Amino acid sequence: MLPHSYTVDSLSQSEDLASAILASANPSQIAATCSSIDSFLHSHTPDQSRHFFSITFPTLICKLFGFNENATSLPQPQQPQKPQHPQSNGWIELASQPNHQDLSSKIFSLLSPNGTLMNSISAVDRHSLVKYVFPVERLPEWVRFMLSSEKDCRVLSDLCPLFKGKVKEDSVKGSLCQIQLNVFEYYLFWFAYYPVCKGNSENLESNTVKKSKKFRLENWTNSIRGFSGSSKREVEQKFEGNLYVQLLYAYLRAFVPIFDLGAHQPYRSSILNYSLKCDGSIIFRAEFLVNVLVHYWLVDNDFSPLPVNVCKSFGVSFPFRSVLGETPPTSGLGEVVKLFVKYLNLSSVISMDGFDNIEYSESPRWRASGGFESGKSRDVVSVSSSASSVGSWNSWIQRPLFRFILRTFLFCPVGSSIKNASQVFSVWVSYMEPWTISLDDFAELDEIVNGSSKDSRKQEAQSQASGYSQLWQRFVLSNYLYYSSLVMHFIGFAHKFLHTDPEVIVQMVLKVWFLTIFFLSSEFSVCFNPISMI
């Protein structure tokens, strides 16, 4: 038991840090506060850090993401501040500006997966010292619907592994349920929610489309990211210089293995480097991060968030008729989704030597995100081998990603910006061509995040995009509806938007046309039974 003086000192320091965080507005103040936080966590044990995570940490999240700038009261352990809408003066937004690179490095060092804060989070969670109640209104829409019904909230834990053991009865309101999270889970929930909330706010601010400029063939190469020339590098530098993107990539590299789980993970701290024989935390963190990003970014307001057979087995239905109206893609979300999808597909590229041994026993069987099969939840997915890793990550994103792209093609209103739809289109094309992905695609982010040069990365692993080969045939067949059904829906989308922005649409059509010609070649004229995912 800690002496009373240590407890009082920890409490007062935590309150002082919370006040300093709220008062930090310019780069020098923010940098000084980050140093103070790091110093505090270095000098306190996990039990002494309890007050920091009860009082200071929720305030830190508010300032990092620019939420709830007018908050004045300090939160209680299970009643933290409820961030509202992201503001332009959030720390991450401010640090992503080109002239604030030093601030970006300071905040990244604080939040990095091998930093002091993340190590302290692991230590606190290991002893279950702090729990938070996550605000229901900030959960994905389909989860909010489940929690609104006493009957449905009882099966949520079994229906979705992401919420297993986290749905608790509200001690204040009685029958209603709430989501209780540990510190690591609480942080990643807000991390995943941030681009969704930010993008939706931007959609509200700019819901009109500028008049399309005159159609000119010579402007095609500058019309869309991924097909442009000199402007492509400028856009990518802006994307890679975004602090949120750097953190996302660092968390994926640290917590989601693309090699064998026993392989060296450059971002993993010693506190997370457990033996699989003794601790399943590596698998848990990998599955949790993939799951939370899938449900916030890909599923969210889907009117069919889970397969019909799964819902029937639990007696659950989702009458989301309102979303069948026109809904614009979330602004900017497509960029981070593309990075997420490319990273997971990188495991297919790296493990190609063992890809031919993967069993696709059923032509495309679309499992629920989080891994469902035959209506039963799967608690732990084995990703201990390279080949198994490929199959597991792909099966987790197949259905939700398909429906994410499908909803864009079906429900994107003509009055919305074509830029957001083009980002989703780019995600689709990237997913259909995993053989074009290589480690070099992540070299710039590695250099920024890990401090490794491109030359040193080439010495670590050689992975160059080698183009399509027969080894990829099973991948194509298991994802056949991406190459067939989505093409038909894209044609309807392109027809609707043709007069909105001809340059972008024609460039999209050309790309799909070339892909379609290739994949309708004779080698794919085989018989199989694709199962509908709609």
Sequence-ordered SSE layout with sheet pairings:
Blueprint lengths: L3 H20 L3 H16 L7 H16 L25 H5 L5 H11 L4 H11 L5 E3 L6 H7 L2 H4 L2 H4 L7 E3 L7 E5 L1 H23 L24 H11 L2 H13 L25 H19 L8 H7 L18 H18 L21 E2 L2 E2 L8 H26 L6 H15 L10 H7 L4 H7 L12 H6 L1 H4 L1 H13 L4 H18 L15
Antiparallel strand pairs: 1-3, 2-3, 4-5
Features:
23 helices; mainly alpha; 5 strands; disordered C terminus; two-stranded antiparallel ribbon
In short:
The protein is mainly α.
**Radius of gyration using CA atoms only:** 23 Å
The profile of the biggest β sheet is: 3 strands, antiparallel
- Reading side by side through the largest sheet, how are the strands ordered? 1-3-2
Q: Please report which band the strand proportion falls in: under 5%, 5-15%, 15-25%, 25-35%, 35-45% or over 45%.
A: under 5%
The total beta strand count reads 5
How would you sum up the global shape? globular
Report how far apart the termini are. Answer: 57 Å
Class per helix and strand makeup: mainly alpha
Which residues sit in consecutive blocks of at least 5 with pLDDT less than 50? 69-83, 208-232, 261-279, 353-391, 525-534
**Count of helical stretches:** 23
Measured as a percent range, the helix fraction is 40-55%
The average pLDDT value, as a whole number, equals 77
Which H/E pattern describes the elements? HHHHHHEHHHEEHHHHHHEEHHHHHHHH
